[in-house]
Design brief:
binds zinc ion, two-stranded antiparallel sheet, mainly alpha, 4 helices
Length: about 90
């Protein structure tokens, strides 16, 4: 799940994911480096930056119970929107 260079990633995808991982967590704003979470497998341009807890934490993570996502009233689409807003503004 955490492989940095999945086979088949293009140069542009790798560069994009590098930028995503430099961003703070899109849920709790914990400073980067973050992990890149794909909204859909292999679609890297819609990946979002998440800290380890908001990503994989069994209680808080999107791959777990997603509790902190509920606290912040966020879902993947909302975090993606904010991520793109920051990338465009950069
Ligand atoms: Zn977080
Ligand atoms: Zn993920």
């Amino acid at each position: 799940m955490q492989s940095k260079n999945k086979p088949g990633m293009s140069k542009a995808e790798r560069e994009h994911v590098t930028r995503i991982k430099e961003m703070p967590c899109g849920v709790c704003s914990s400073p980067g480096p973050s992990e890149a979470h794909e909204l859909r497998q292999g679609e890297w341009f819609t990946s979002i930056p998440l800290c380890a807890d908001c990503h994989r934490g069994p209680f808080n993570g999107i791959h777990g119970q997603g509790r902190i996502w509920s606290v912040y009233k966020l879902d993947e689409q909302a975090v993606l929107n904010e991520t793109i807003r920051q990338l465009v503004a950069a």
